[in-house]
């Protein structure tokens, strides 16, 4: 009966059929859908959609819209509104592009043409049913078109009326204001500078600062308890409206529910629509400088006070970012800003350590001995076809190596271990404060619906054990087998990375031999350095190439594994990509730090790889080679990423504008409507790549910091640019993403925590086995405090049976006797190294646990605010308080007790 009544109402409005595919006829000015026209679809029901029963035929409920063909059409209102100038647009889209003259059919391929026509007809049925069900769900719809001879772009503007907003606000547990309170200033640095009476150049006054409230979950029955509930136009924020509209779009069916034909996301994948997005609040540019700051729209405020390069040293307006983009994006920028601020002390200490190394280079006794040795130390050849050489030839590299291998670097590695864990502990406090301030501390992902791809490919339907609703189902056994197969693919790709690493090692050996054979003394002494730098550049190119290939492969693998929800899909994808990128970026530095020079052997008994002698550390030691690799890989990757982030969005936006200009042609108005301007922008690709870039950077500045004290400085400079690049993309170049709630940075925090602990272990081994710190320390303890004779002590004599080019005696760096056997000092040094690793790790991890214990995750002042807010929510939303008090007051009467028992 409900369906029949709906058909009668629809028949009363039947004047023009909304056909989003049809574009064969020329649109006149008084016809629906022209550039000067629009149609308004009134709501029929305010309850959830009930159409689309399992036994109902698809496409039997076409949608009809009213079109007033008589009289002059109203002019388009300014702003994000319907044609009545009052109804706010909750979302721009869905939209799609259609051919102007229809698709051309090839004479020789009738089957392909028939298949294409059937596909288009199916899409049209899905689209009509979907739009009809949106109307049934209570959304207001209005259509616009951009028409040209060859192409027509259709836009559907959506808006949720008050009753729909109220219904979904309670279902989605949106937070509603109970009591206003001062908006706190949560910048710790600003508070410290104020106490010290130091002017804060980073502070700025941003207009229209959002009001802070005590809030609780919205309830329709307690509407009068919430502030501003009488103002229906402005009670719900724009981001809340967007969330409600997108929720309806995600829930609405367009076909058979038993086939999981539900949601706009799957329609986008099927090509029925090309985009769905909320509209920006207006242009970001400020044409008139005389506009008062408090009259700027939200997008202009973000551009003027945040996204411009001139604001690089100012605090980020996090409350404004959250109000405009939602909590998920705001937390990313809060974390990036917090991390960048914490990089400042790390960069200062690292620069101080590097400068102290420069200032103490003259007191390096081993370097002096090398430079003044002349021809005293005749060194063994570095390759099978090389000649002997004097150790004095490496004087410049010996001096330079001290910059990366002196006692200050040991202190800095300990400092960075403490810094990493302290940073994470204080971020947890900052995150808790922001989560409460933005009303998402108690936010938990609701029971997620199946992903559109999962719903489309699942072979069966089963009842959800939580909701009881029939949903697409994929057997767990089959999924596990697919995940195991995907794991094998990951292992194979990691083996490919190892193969490329071996290739780079062989390239380095070939280049070194070529440098030795040039005959130039300068090239011969710098052969290892030239080979290392050039191989690092080749390695960087391979890293970036393999990263692109594997990311695409990981995406296909993760889809093939059939993860049910989007959260499961994102976690699996993040794990795959990070594991691969970790090995991809860090395998070469790990090789240089812990394997290069360990399996060289000794004269007459050299180790080989594919017929080539195993690599030995260069004249300045392995740490200087590690520093060169870290500099080229880390800084090179940052520069390339920044160039890509600056250029690629502009190229994509230019192409989109060019395509739109071709569609508009001469009909384009002087000022395109908001939905057309936003459609010209590029789609927001999410935060995965942004997080991955910064997390890999965090690994560089913590894991190998003992070899590269300037890493935090380069990271700081990069992040200052990264904040503004990302801000400009989101404000100016991206379509506005749907606001999503989040209470933290998700799985990335656990990855950062693992990296901080790995850095402690790696730095301990780096200092113990790669640095010369412990050999020098043990030599000072046993022999000479001023390291006199240390160079001679570290050089062994070649065995008596070794003869090369009439040279019966040469030296090489090792703690061996004349027979090639390790000396007692070697075993003493090994014991010291192992003892240092154990002591270093235990002391550092003990202090880290103490820091974790002393720094609470939630500040004490915040706990009081949380208790206060819960008390207010309890007082405001308590049901039948007066009746409860009366019943308690009369509880002494037996009759009353009996009556109350009967009532219940």
Automatic annotation (TrEMBL):
The chain crosses the membrane at residues 329-355, 409-427, 484-510, 530-553, 573-594, 694-717, 745-769, 824-848. Residues 321-869 form the Anoctamin transmembrane domain. It is found in: Cell membrane; Membrane. GO terms for molecular function: chloride channel activity; protein dimerization activity. Its main location: membrane. It is a multi-pass membrane protein. Keywords: Cell membrane, Glycoprotein, Membrane, Transmembrane, Transmembrane helix. Residues 50-125 are annotated as: Disordered. The keyword Transmembrane applies. Residues 90-105 have a biased composition (Gly residues). GO terms for cellular component: plasma membrane. Residues 112-125 have a biased composition (Basic and acidic residues). Residues 113-318 form the Anoctamin dimerisation domain. This is Anoctamin.
């Amino acid at each position: 009966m409900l369906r029949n009544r709906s058909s009668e109402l629809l028949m009363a409005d039947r004047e023009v059929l909304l056909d989003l595919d049809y574009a064969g006829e020329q649109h006149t000015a008084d016809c629906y859908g022209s550039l000067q026209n629009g149609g308004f679809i009134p709501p029929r029901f305010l309850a959830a959609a009930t159409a689309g029963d399992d036994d109902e035929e698809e496409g039997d409920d076409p949608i009809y819209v009213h079109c007033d063909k008589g009289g002059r059409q109203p002019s388009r209102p300014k702003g994000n509104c319907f044609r009545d100038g009052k109804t706010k647009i909750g979302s721009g889209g869905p939209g799609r592009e259609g051919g102007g003259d229809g698709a051309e059919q090839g004479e020789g391929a009738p089957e392909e043409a028939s298949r294409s026509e059937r596909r288009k007809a199916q899409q049209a049925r899905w689209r009509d049913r979907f739009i009809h069900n949106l109307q049934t769900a209570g959304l207001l719809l209005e259509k616009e078109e951009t028409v040209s001879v060859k192409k027509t772009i259709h836009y559907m503007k959506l808006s949720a009326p008050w009753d729909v907003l109220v219904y979904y606000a309670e279902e989605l547990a949106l937070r509603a204001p109970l009591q206003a309170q001062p908006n706190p200033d949560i910048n710790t640095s600003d508070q410290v500078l104020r106490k010290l009476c130091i002017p804060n150049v980073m502070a700025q006054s941003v207009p229209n600062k959002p009001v802070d409230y005590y809030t609780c979950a919205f309830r329709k029955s307690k509407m009068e308890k919430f502030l501003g509930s009488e103002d229906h136009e402005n009670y719900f924020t724009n981001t809340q409206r967007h969330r409600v509209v997108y929720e309806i779009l995600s829930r609405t069916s367009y076909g058979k529910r038993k086939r999981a034909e539900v949601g706009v996301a799957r329609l986008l994948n099927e090509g029925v629509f090309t985009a769905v997005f909320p509209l920006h609040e207006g242009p970001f540019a400020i044409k008139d400088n005389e506009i008062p700051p408090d009259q700027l729209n939200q997008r202009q405020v973000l551009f003027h006070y945040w996204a411009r390069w001139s604001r690089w040293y100012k605090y980020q307006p996090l409350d404004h970012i959250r109000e405009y983009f939602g909590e998920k994006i705001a937390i990313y920028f809060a974390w990036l800003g917090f991390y960048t601020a914490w990089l400042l002390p790390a960069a200062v200490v690292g620069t101080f350590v590097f400068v102290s190394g420069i200032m103490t280079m003259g007191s390096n006794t081993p370097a002096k001995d090398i430079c003044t040795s002349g021809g005293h130390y005749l060194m063994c050849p570095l390759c099978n076809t090389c000649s002997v050489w004097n150790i004095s030839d490496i004087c410049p590299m010996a001096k330079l190596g001290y910059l990366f291998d002196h006692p200050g670097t040991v202190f800095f590695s300990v400092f960075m271990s403490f810094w990493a864990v302290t940073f994470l502990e204080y971020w947890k406090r900052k995150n808790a404060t922001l989560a409460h301030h933005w009303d998402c501390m108690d936010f938990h992902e609701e029971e997620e619906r199946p992903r559109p791809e999962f719903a489309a490919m699942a072979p069966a339907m089963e009842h959800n054990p939580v909701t009881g609703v029939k949903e697409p189902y994929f057997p767990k056994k089959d999924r596990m087998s697919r995940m195991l197969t995907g794991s094998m693919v990951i292992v194979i790709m990691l083996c490919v990375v190892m193969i490329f690493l071996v290739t780079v090692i062989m390239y380095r050996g070939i280049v070194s031999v070529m440098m030795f054979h040039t005959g130039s003394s300068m090239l011969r002494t710098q052969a290892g350095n030239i080979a290392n730098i050039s191989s690092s550049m080749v390695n960087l190119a391979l890293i970036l190439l393999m990263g692109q290939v594997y990311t695409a492969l990981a995406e296909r693998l993760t889809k093939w594994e059939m993860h049910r929800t989007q959260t499961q899909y994102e976690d699996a994808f993040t794990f795959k990509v990070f594991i691969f990128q970790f090995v991809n970026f860090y395998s070469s530095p790990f090789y240089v730090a812990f394997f290069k020079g360990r399996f060289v052997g000794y004269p007459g008994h050299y180790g080989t790889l594919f017929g080539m002698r195993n690599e030995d550390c260069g004249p300045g030691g392995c740490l200087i080679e590690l520093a060169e690799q870290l500099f080229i890989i880390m800084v090179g990757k940052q520069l390339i990423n920044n160039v890509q982030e600056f250029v690629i969005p502009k190229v994509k936006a230019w192409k989109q504008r060019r395509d739109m200009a071709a569609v508009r042609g001469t009909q384009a108005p002087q000022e395109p409507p908001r939905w057309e301007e936003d459609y010209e922008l590029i789609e927001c690709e999410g935060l995965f790549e942004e997080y991955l870039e910064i997390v890999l950077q965090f690994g560089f500045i913590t894991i190998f910091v003992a070899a590269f004290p300037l890493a935090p400085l380069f990271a700081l400079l990069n992040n200052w640019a990264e904040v503004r690049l990302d801000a400009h993309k989101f404000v100016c170049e991206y379509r506005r993403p749907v606001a999503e709630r989040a209470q933290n940075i998700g799985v990335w925090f656990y990855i950062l925590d693992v990296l901080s602990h790995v850095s402690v272990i790696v730095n301990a081994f780096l200092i113990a086995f790669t640095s010369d710190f412990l050999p020098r320390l043990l030599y000072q303890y046993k022999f000479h405090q001023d390291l006199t004779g240390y160079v001679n002590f570290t050089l062994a004599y070649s065995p008596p049976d070794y003869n090369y080019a009439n040279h019966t005696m040469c030296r090489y760096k090792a703690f061996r006797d004349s027979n090639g056997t390790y000396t007692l000092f070697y075993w003493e040094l090994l014991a010291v190294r192992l003892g240092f690793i154990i002591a270093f790790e235990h002391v550092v991890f003990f202090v880290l646990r103490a820091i974790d214990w002393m720094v609470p995750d939630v500040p004490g002042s915040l706990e009081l605010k949380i208790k206060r807010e819960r008390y207010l929510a309890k007082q405001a939303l308590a049901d039948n308080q007066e009746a409860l008090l009366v019943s308690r007051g009369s509880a002494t009467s037996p009759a009353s007790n009996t009556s109350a028992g009967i009532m219940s």
